[in-house]
Write a structure and sequence with these properties.
Blueprint lengths: L2 H4 L3 H8 L8 H15 L2 E6 L7 H19 L10 E4 L18 H15 L3 E3 L7 H13 L5 E6 L5 H6 L6 E5 L14 H17 L3 E5 L3 H14 L7 E6 L5 H9 L3 E8 L3 H14 L3 H12 L1
Parallel strand pairs: 1-2, 1-8, 2-3, 3-4, 4-5, 5-6, 6-7, 7-8
Helix pairs in contact: 2-11, 4-5, 8-9
Length: 307
């Protein structure tokens, strides 16, 4: 990590993080997603900030928290069609991460346990995509779940990776897919470095997925690309609003475009991260600032526009 980022005081990091993190406990996160739906008609997906695991106790705590999340979501009082979905990262359940040459021991078993509980409770689940080191592992886990009949589990694909077009072809039939450009910095031999090209790929891949019968979750804050997806790509693929949704991050001010989408009958969902203790949330934001330095400017602009 950049030493300058390590020097940023924790209190300042927390100040920057607070608009983008739904609190430091599960009850606070549940309160946020209920408020988003009841006051603004927005759907949510909950994500526990729980990366960079170093002890078995941390991995076990993350697993227990996700099982509790399934139970809390299923009984939160929202209509079934408005229940939050859950997103998880495979690296949250192992002390042997792939990016450090490990074998991710324990991760698949934890994911299977969470997926089974979610299936029992009627809660949809999405397995997030991390750096390129995790791509094969994550797609293999998804295929395993699909073979076991767990159709409630969705995938995430990053359009910056050159391999993603082939990965589209290997998806199980009818797979729910969240398309993102991806935040992980990757070398030029495996990924695009131009963001406009990544976004053009999003539109291209979204069209292919819709034509093949997949449900597409188009995750972008770029209003122009969101509108192109909704107004051009989806209709060209013969897909109505029941075949896709648009997703954005909690805390990023996009009220106008979200309201515009809702008027068109398009489902809009916010990705809502929370932590169990602010120390993990602060670690998360430090890593994001290191991977994506431009985030500092984005956060500052968002804070200004909120005033």
């Amino acid at each position: 990590m950049n030493p300058l980022i390590r020097l940023i005081p924790a209190a300042m990091v927390r100040f920057f993080a607070s608009p983008y993190v739904a609190g430091d406990s599960l009850p606070k996160a549940i309160a946020v997603v209920k408020k988003l739906h009841l006051e603004r008609g927005l759907l949510s997906t909950l994500d526990l900030l729980a990366e960079d695991i170093r002890t078995d106790a941390q991995a076990k705590k993350n697993l227990d928290t996700y099982l509790n999340m399934v139970d809390a979501v299923s009984t939160c009082g929202l209509p079934r069609e408005a229940l939050p979905t859950l997103s998880l990262k495979p690296s949250s359940y192992t002390t042997r991460p792939l990016q450090e040459g490990g074998d991710a021991a324990g991760s698949v078993a934890a994911i299977l346990q969470i997926a089974r509980r979610a299936e029992e409770k009627g809660v949809a689940l999405t397995i997030d995509m991390e750096s390129r080191h995790w791509t094969d592992f994550t797609l293999d886990a998804l295929r395993l779940l699909h073979k076991q009949g767990m159709r409630h589990v969705g995938a995430v694909l990053q359009t910056r990776l050159h391999r993603t077009e082939k990965d589209l072809d290997a998806l199980p039939p009818g797979q729910r897919v969240r398309l993102v450009i991806g935040i992980y910095r990757e070398p030029g031999d495996v990924a695009l470095t131009d963001k406009s090209a990544m976004k053009e790929r999003m539109l291209q891949f979204a069209g292919k997925l819709l034509q093949r019968g997949h449900f597409v979750e188009f995750a972008s804050h770029d209003d122009s690309y969101v509108r192109r997806f909704v107004d051009q790509v989806a209709p060209a693929a013969g897909a109505g609003p029941d075949r896709y949704e648009v997703q954005m991050l909690y805390g990023v001010p996009r009220e106008r475009v979200l309201a515009e989408l809702q008027k068109k009958g398009v489902r809009a969902r916010l990705y809502v991260p929370f932590a169990v203790g602010w120390d993990m949330a602060i670690q998360y934001l430090r890593r994001r600032l290191d991977e994506y330095p431009a985030m500092t400017l984005l956060v500052t602009k968002n804070l200004i526009f909120r005033r």
